[in-house]
Design brief:
This protein is of the alpha/beta class. The chain has one domain. About 45% of the residues lie in helices and about 20% in strands. It has 12 helices and 10 strands. The strands form 2 sheets. Strands 5-4-9-8-6-7 form a 6-stranded parallel beta sheet, with helices on both faces. Strands 1, 2, 3 and 10 form a 4-stranded mixed beta sheet that branches. The radius of gyration is 18 Å and the shape is globular.
């Protein structure tokens, strides 16, 4: 199966624990997302699958269904292991949101309006400022922090529409951010919607990134655990073995599938 865009760009996908995950390299991923952001019609929603939110979706059928309705990119070594177990090779690229979004903003040369929702107010403001320095030809619009009363969702999205955003970036943590986008965000709000977890905290330097060598080895999770052991020990010390258990059980059940078609941009009008 494949996902495609309005210009018929298609991405092949691999099934990972019941969810189709796209497997492009960096160049094809940037091209796909860029075309989505600049397309005159329809909408593409991009999410990311890592070991932690894979664990969450295995206990949350609603979350899994939400991810199936979005274009999912692979994030981290855990899903690489799953891909190797199910399909015989790893993903071509680690398309984690923390690297993908800034890279995409550099890749897109056409000036766009980028609406931002998420994080704490001061972090959101600094993230918008720093992204503006990173890609000054785009306009970055901090719409709302991520702790707003969910009954105000319509008001928040009215502000997004008022600024005529091309891209909407939502950083409220999984599974809340993906579920919120699925329930509330429509094609009239933005052509490309990306859910990005802790991106704003990293961009605002509220959380330090791991050294490049550690990131290249896909061990940033270990660096984050070292920095915040009390907050993250359960996610990684318990979560990583749990993820491998899910992978092994899924493999032994015979549910893994080799092909799920392709994902395309044009078919998605929410």
């Amino acid at each position: 199966m494949a996902v495609a865009a309005a210009n018929n760009i298609a991405l092949s996908q691999r099934m990972i624990l019941g969810v189709p995950v796209a497997d492009p390299g960096w160049a094809n991923a940037f091209e796909f997302a860029s075309e989505a952001a600049c397309s005159p019609a329809g909408q593409v929603r991009i999410a990311f699958l890592n070991a932690n939110n894979a664990n969450l979706m295995m206990e949350d059928a609603e979350y899994q269904e939400v991810l199936r309705r979005q274009v999912v990119f692979p994030d981290g070594h855990g899903v690489d292991i799953a891909s190797y177990v199910f399909h015989g090779d790893m993903f071509p690229a680690n398309l984690n949101g923390t690297d993908f979004v800034p890279g995409l903003l550099t890749y897109i040369e056409r000036p766009l309006r980028v609406a931002m929702i998420g994080a704490r107010p001061e972090v959101l403001a600094r993230a918008a400022e720093n992204l503006g320095k990173h890609a000054p030809w785009h306009e970055f619009l901090p719409i709302s922090h991520g702790f707003f009363d969910r009954s105000r969702s319509g008001e928040i999205l009215a502000a997004v529409r008022a600024c005529r955003a091309d891209i909407l970036i939502v950083a409220m943590g999984s599974p809340m951010q993906e579920k919120w986008v699925d329930a509330h965000v429509g094609a009239q709000d933005a052509r490309l919607v990306i859910t990005v977890g802790a991106l704003f905290d990293f961009v605002a330097h509220a959380i330090p990134r791991a050294p490049k060598l550690v990131r290249r080895l896909r061990l940033e999770w270990l660096y984050r655990l070292f920095l915040e052991p009390k907050r993250l020990w359960r996610r990684y010390i318990v979560g990583n073995p749990l993820f491998l258990f899910h992978v092994a059980r899924h493999k032994l059940s015979g549910k893994a599938r080799k092909s799920v078609g392709k994902a395309s941009l044009g078919a998605r009008k929410y």
